[in-house]
Design brief:
It is built from seven helices and six strands, in the order αααββαβββαβαα. With about 160 residues, the protein is of the alpha+beta class. α2 (about 20-25) crosses α3 (about 30-35).
């Protein structure tokens, strides 16, 4: 509850190094979230989150990134395709595809998809900016992200 009050959102289980303690005590992470009086996100990507600029995002993390872009007055699009594939990037800023790889290292097929996106980016000569949970929730990330994105936009 303290986390939720401070951050204005439900915590991700990877933000708590004590995940096993919660699992042992409550039976699952979602049960712990319910016990705190909050509503868990039961299915990945089932719940959409509205960013301040009106974009609908597939996760709360994507909403955070979208809001950072808007706050910095950086024009961006959602869901830009990689060449002629069915794969899409979370965001497009000029010729830069921005991906939030929130499940990296968690699901093998997800990691394979990351590699496919990297290869397609090289093939199509796209700039690809990869964001991972450990970075997104680190102190100072917003400033670091915007500064580096602006640098990439000039290249």
């Amino acid at each position: 509850m303290d986390f939720c009050r401070k951050k204005g959102r439900i915590p991700l289980k990877r933000e708590f190094n004590m995940y096993r303690v919660y699992q042992k005590r409550f039976g699952s992470w979602n049960n712990a979230i319910r016990a705190a009086g909050l509503e868990p996100n039961m299915v990945i990507f089932s719940k959409k989150f509205g960013a301040r600029d009106g974009h609908m995002c597939d996760s709360f993390a994507e909403k955070i990134i979208d809001d950072y872009l808007s706050e910095a007055s950086i024009v961006h699009k959602r869901n830009a395709y990689y060449g002629n594939t069915k794969m899409s990037a979370d965001f497009l800023v000029k010729d830069i595809r921005i991906e939030y790889f929130g499940l990296a290292g968690v699901k093998e097929d997800y990691d394979e998809n990351i590699e496919r996106k990297r290869l397609e980016s090289k093939k199509c000569d796209y700039k690809l900016l990869e964001i991972y949970p450990s970075a997104l929730f680190a102190p100072g990330f917003k400033e670091f992200f915007i500064r580096n994105l602006r640098r990439l936009m000039k290249i």
